[in-house]
Design brief:
- There is one protein chain.
- By secondary structure, this protein is mainly alpha-helical.
- The protein has six helices and no strands.
- α4 runs antiparallel to α5 and α4 packs antiparallel against α6.
- The chain starts with a helix and ends with a helix.
Length: 213
Amino acid sequence: MFETILLTAALISIVVLYKFLPNRKVFFYFCVSMLLMFCAGAFFGLQSKSDSALDDEQRDLLLRQEKFFIIWYSQYQKDIEQLDRNWQLYHSIVDGYKDGKSDLSNTYERLTELEREVLTEQIHIHTMEPPPDLDAECSELVSSVIRKTQLYVDAQTQTILQTKAAANPESVMIEDRNALSRRFQDIMIREAPVGLFTATEISALRDYFALKN
């Protein structure tokens, strides 16, 4: 609509100038200038529409990436919850023996059951991959989260396995409950994971999708 009004005004201006300009050469240069201006306007108008369409395409791509990430992250949170449950159960078993609530045989049996669960979870964590539909920036952030989680589950599993070996009634060399409890504590201090610090990557991913949308 706006372009139509401008075109009409330009045509009227040309007619008026043609009638009142005495110098036809000046009129010719004026027409050429007007033509160049309209060509430039048309070019930039088309370019603007093309850029707008590209922005829409990029936005759709980002929305799809965000959807895939949300699905992946939802499953990842369940895995973290399982790791937390395993770790809490481990502490409960060790504390139970330390406080005299269970004997060595029962402690070893419970650690053996826990071992099966943590090994299953460890295998699962090591098969994790970023969603294939993420771009390079997002994929690298997710890969960093996965690598940190794999290191965490490895340390967690190693701690539980060594504690179980130390609690084996058939091979234990320490009969005193307090001394064996200190042995469990030493293993925990030496082998336990420091923590799972993925807040930087997760925050960067959330900011990425928030800013791009």
